[in-house]
Sequence to fold (632 residues):
Amino acid sequence: MKSIVVGTAGHIDHGKTALVKALTGIDADRLEEEKRRGITIDLGFAHMTLPAANGEMLRLGFVDVPGHERFVRNMLAGVGGIDFVLLVIAADEAIKPQTREHFDILQLLGLQRGITVLTKSDAVDAETLDVVRLEVEEFLRGTFLDSAQSPVLAVSSLTGAGLEELKRAMVMAAAEVQPRDARAIARLPIDRVFTMKGFGTVVTGTLVAGTIRRDNELEVFPTGQRVRVRGAQVHGDFADSATAGQRTALNLVGASTEELSRGMTLVPPASLEKTRRADVSLRLLASATRPLKNRARVHLHCYTMETVAEVVLYGTREVAPGEKAFARLKLTEPALLLPGDRFILRQFSPVVTIGGGVVLDAAPIARMPEHDEFLKTSAEGNATAILVARVARRNHEGISISQLTAETGWTRNFIEAQLTEAGKAGRVARAGELLLHFPALEALKVDIVATVEDFQKKNPLVSGIQKQELRERARASAEVFEVTLEMVVREKKIEIVGDLVRLPGHGVVMKDEESESKKKIEDAFASAGLKVPALHEVIAGLKIDKVRAQKIVTLLLRDKVLVKVSDELVFHRSALQELRRQLVAYKAKSAAIDVGRFKELTGVSRKYAIPLLEYLDRERVTRRVGDAREIL
Ligand SMILES: Nc1nc2c(ncn2[C@@H]2O[C@H](COP(=O)(O)OP(=O)(O)O)[C@@H](O)[C@H]2O)c(=O)[nH]1
Ligand SMILES: [Mg+2]
Fold:
């Protein structure tokens, strides 16, 4: 069954609440004060089901808003989630100030569908009704409620005249309402919090995206509190789940009514992030009485949330009435905002609606080049272009899929689909969870190879650059560096030996006699096993002088081909590896070994055994316990 949420809008006393009651039978004025004074103060709710043209049923949730100018902020908390509006204009009064203000708000919110209802048709004669209709059609021309595309219907809630026609028109219009995405990340902006006898804490709201099920855990924004859904109601009926586009009530465990309030939002835990900064595109109403100045303080409304914000304009010192601009909003309190969210701005004082806009980026990063380009793409680009821009702006550190979700509110599935597109276009590369900007990645690869090449030219006696040093020169995050390095290795442009990175097959460039000596030293130790010769003897047997020989030994030690076990003793890496293997095998027989058994096992004298055991202790292969060693 399709569900949509219908909002009312219009000036006070024009018959909004009466119309909702005439349609649904429900009095949306639920507060005692509202009933006593006969005016709507806060949001009211009602619901009804109508047969749709395709034989299915259509479920309509109503959000009835107050028309009084003092309660526009309550109206704002209600209209954020609606799919469809009934713009109510009384035939005996025609267009009044809050008709205009509410209609401005609906347009700023980007609402696409609605019906204009001329109420109290019984209170005027046919001629007056015609005049009002003309006036209203003129007022709506060129807007989403232009009478060329959406009906202007006269009704009387008193006599019932026109109500059937209105219902039919609502069913037809509802068919054109784009259903909200039930698979998106769930988001419920809270509009009411109360306790219900036998249930405890209950919150209500219009579920603007996703699905919430009984027993789901949710996170409260911005407090971060975790709650569990004990039960759900949709349009007044118990339900196992609520989906986007439904008026939803949740019975929550884990939070008291004092801890929750209108303006907070419920979302799946650890999926999104709150913010105090948002880059936006905003528009000042043509009817605004003065320009919006840089650094002005305003009231910001988004869904049910409201806070004070400072507007920092980009590239201009003020926005004239009717003009648009990019700006950064600095919120006094953290809130949940996502790209695409519509918001309303009201003047700080006196409080009147002056404009609104759309969030482009609620996770701005510092000192970004081409910031303007990024905002333009965010405002006008398709999802793939936006994804590419978001990856590109983090070209040195990349962005993980979950981080991208937190920035955009997009699900993993949606991101994967965009990635396929972006990948085809050669714009984004993926390494596991990490997304990298392809051109930046290619540049980094070239950079790495050039750095290695350059290093080797300048240090012919060293067989490669230390990985750590290469990383520092590459100016990329550790993760991006590792991923890129791996790619360059796979492409066989460089190779990694131990801690060193070098051009393939490019060991130390040595003169013939030097490389011959190096080989001799290596061979002398490799063939000796643990019964190593004295280093000075090996050096004495070479054709080159001592200083050059010592340099080669230093390189061999640094590359960990040779390992110094004590001041006098140097071993080949392979001999020590073999020793470790022997000890592991020995451990199967005995958990401990003493010096005598060690000599037996390895065939070395005491002069070698003691330094070797001390080396093994340092390496945490063994641990000294009294005279023996425990094998770890
Ligand atoms: N004659 C007549 N009076 C109406 C009609 N609809 C509403 N009213 C009256 O107009 C007043 C304001 O109606 P209400 O629904 O509270 O207006 P709201 O402020 O827009 O919600 C009430 O006294 C209603 O009884 C109508 O269709 N015909
Ligand atoms: Mg009312």
Q: What stands out?
A: The pocket of magnesium ion (ligand 2) is lined by residues 16-17, 40, 64 (CB under 6 Å). The chain has a mean pLDDT of 92. Residues 438-458 form the longest helix (21 residues).
